[in-house]
């Protein structure tokens, strides 16, 4: 009989022990502040990290090495698992998926299934939980993989950011796209679909921008949603009020944007992580 274990990277998680009771290991990426690396979520909290950004400290990120993934694989193999499903941040946004795949080739005697979620943020963890529930009644690894891909293909992130400077520094968007955010104090709204960050639209004021984030989600019925914010109560309150106005009957979860994500979008961001219905 097969025995499944799961790994998701820290950009998809809410906390290191999230879903620990479901055999889920959170593999941390690294946040580097003032040349000091810290394990995302494990050694630096979202609140600590965003406070550092507010103070003007420069930050960068680093993916886990193949060796770190291999250590996790070996531990789970020793625990008797036959298959490991590994969920990573979009390969177009990070080399984490490549590290997981490289480690896959370094171990025998256990089946490793590396899945590029094509997304990030805590909405990913909700999809992982759904995948685990499906796997409980289906022992076919390929069926689990197909289920995961179908679900992640229905995920979208819509987020307000104060400016695009951090994304430009990290090379996630072009200089031409970044220039949009500097024009006439325009407030850019980003979308993440299939691992690609795009400027979805732009507004002139913060209030209009927040309303637009929610309006952009109305194109398809929502199955699950997470309200995302950069560890700031005012941003959370703004996106929460706007969401409730449009969707008074939809339940939602709330999560910080992880420090690794925060490095690339800056300290003033909020939005929605959405799983749309089929």
Q: What does the secondary structure layout of this molecule look like, with pairings?
A:
Elements: E1 4-9, E2 24-27, E3 30-33, E4 36-39, H1 46-54, E5 59-62, H2 66-78, E6 83-88, H3 96-104, E7 111-116, H4 123-136, H5 141-152, E8 155-161, H6 165-169, H7 175-180, E9 187-193, E10 196-203, H8 206-216, E11 222-229, H9 233-246, E12 253-256, H10 259-265, E13 269-276
Parallel strand pairs: 1-2, 1-6, 6-7, 11-12
Antiparallel strand pairs: 3-4, 3-5, 8-9, 8-13, 9-10, 11-13
Q: In a few lines, what is going on in this structure?
A:
This is DegV family protein. This protein is α/β, with parallel strands linked by helices.
Distance between the termini: 31 Å
Q: Which topology of the largest domain does CATH recognise?
A: Hypothetical Protein Tm841, Chain: A,domain 3
In total, the number of domains comes to: 2
Low-confidence stretches: none
Tertiary shape = globular
Number of strands: 13
Q: Give the strand line-up of the largest sheet.
A: 10-9-8-13-11-12
Q: Judging by the overall fold, what is the CATH architecture of the largest domain?
A: 2-Layer Sandwich
Order of helices and strands: EEEEHEHEHEHHEHHEEHEHEHE
Report on this model:
This is DegV family protein. There is one protein chain. The protein is α/β, with parallel strands linked by helices and 278 residues long. The chain folds into two domains: 4-29 and 64-152, Rossmann fold (3-Layer(aba) Sandwich), CATH 3.40.50; 155-276, Hypothetical Protein Tm841, Chain: A,domain 3 (2-Layer Sandwich), CATH 3.30.1180. Helices cover 36% and strands 27% of the residues. It has ten helices and 13 strands. It has helices at residues 46-54, 66-78, 96-104, 123-136, 141-152, 165-169, 175-180, 206-216, 233-246, 259-265, and strands at 4-9, 24-27, 30-33, 36-39, 59-62, 83-88, 111-116, 155-161, 187-193, 196-203, 222-229, 253-256, 269-276.
């Amino acid at each position: 009989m097969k025995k499944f274990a799961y790994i998701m990277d820290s950009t998809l998680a809410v906390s290191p022990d999230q879903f620990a009771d479901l055999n889920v290991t959170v593999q941390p990426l690294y946040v580097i502040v003032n040349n000091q690396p810290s394990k995302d979520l494990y050694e630096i909290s979202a609140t600590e990290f965003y406070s550092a950004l507010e103070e003007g400290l420069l930050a960068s990120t680093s993916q886990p090495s193949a060796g770190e993934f291999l250590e996790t694989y070996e531990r789970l193999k020793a625990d008797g698992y036959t298959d490991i499903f590994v969920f990573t941040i979009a390969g177009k946004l990070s080399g984490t998926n490549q590290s997981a795949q490289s480690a896959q080739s370094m171990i025998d005697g256990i089946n490793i299934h590396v899945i590029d979620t094509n997304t990030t943020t805590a909405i990913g963890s909700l999809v992982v939980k759904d995948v685990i529930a499906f796997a409980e009644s289906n022992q076919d690894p390929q069926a689990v993989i197909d289920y995961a891909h179908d679900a992640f293909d229905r995920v979208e992130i819509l987020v307000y950011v104060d400016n695009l400077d951090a994304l430009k520094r990290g090379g996630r968007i072009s200089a031409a796209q970044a220039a949009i955010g500097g024009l006439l104090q325009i407030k850019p709204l980003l979308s993440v679909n299939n691992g690609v960050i795009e400027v979805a639209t732009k507004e002139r004021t913060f209030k209009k921008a927040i309303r637009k984030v929610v309006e952009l989600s109305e194109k398809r019925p929502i199955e699950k949603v997470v309200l995302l914010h950069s560890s700031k109560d005012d941003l959370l309150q703004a996106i929460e009020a706007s969401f409730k106005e449009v969707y008074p009957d939809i339940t939602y979860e709330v999560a910080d944007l992880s420090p690794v994500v925060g490095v690339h979008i800056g300290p003033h961001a909020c939005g929605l992580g959405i799983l749309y219905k089929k």
